[in-house]
Prior knowledge:
Layout: H1 2-18, H2 34-37, H3 52-55, E1 57-65, E2 72-80, H4 84-91, E3 99-112, E4 115-131, E5 143-144, E6 147-153, H5 165-168, H6 170-173
Organism: Herminiimonas glaciei
Amino acid sequence: MKIIGALGVAVIGMFMMFDGNAYGQTAPHSQFDATTAAVVDDQGNMHVPADYQTSYQMLGTWAIAEKKGAGSKEMHVVYASPGVIAAYRKTGRYPDGSVLVKEVYKTTTKPMTTGTVSSADTLVGWFVMVKDDVGRFPKNTLWGDGWGWSWFNAADPKKTTSTDYKKDCLSCHVPAQASDWIYSYGYPPLKR
């Protein structure tokens, strides 16, 4: 009887070691994988991941046309955290914990042998989105509609200037609501 009792306690202890959610010991963000948890703190505050240009995958680039004249006024370069592209190709959805980072640049435009060309020049800032299928941060106004949303000025990749995603972010994404708020059609790597 003592052996069974000791064995039972050992098994329960092992389950508690592997289940960090036991007794509420784990913060909600820890349900994300390590890559995502490194971008989001336990209150749902986000920052620009330091290594995204080398460890994330590029999704695509958008050119925002000048209203008058040739060329582009801005370029938006978008990256996805590791594994997002493969998962999206398989399921047609962004998996929980996906991190998207959009760099926003002012451009320089000049004539070249191929014609008038715009290229990225001065970094304006970053827009970061984190997929959240379970509603981890219901009291944080930067989380909702299945995502965390934050803008960061180029001067500070750790402090968002966004205060409420509905006021600061959502209006630009309304045309993409049917595709989970993301303009996925503009990203060649997502196409199967």
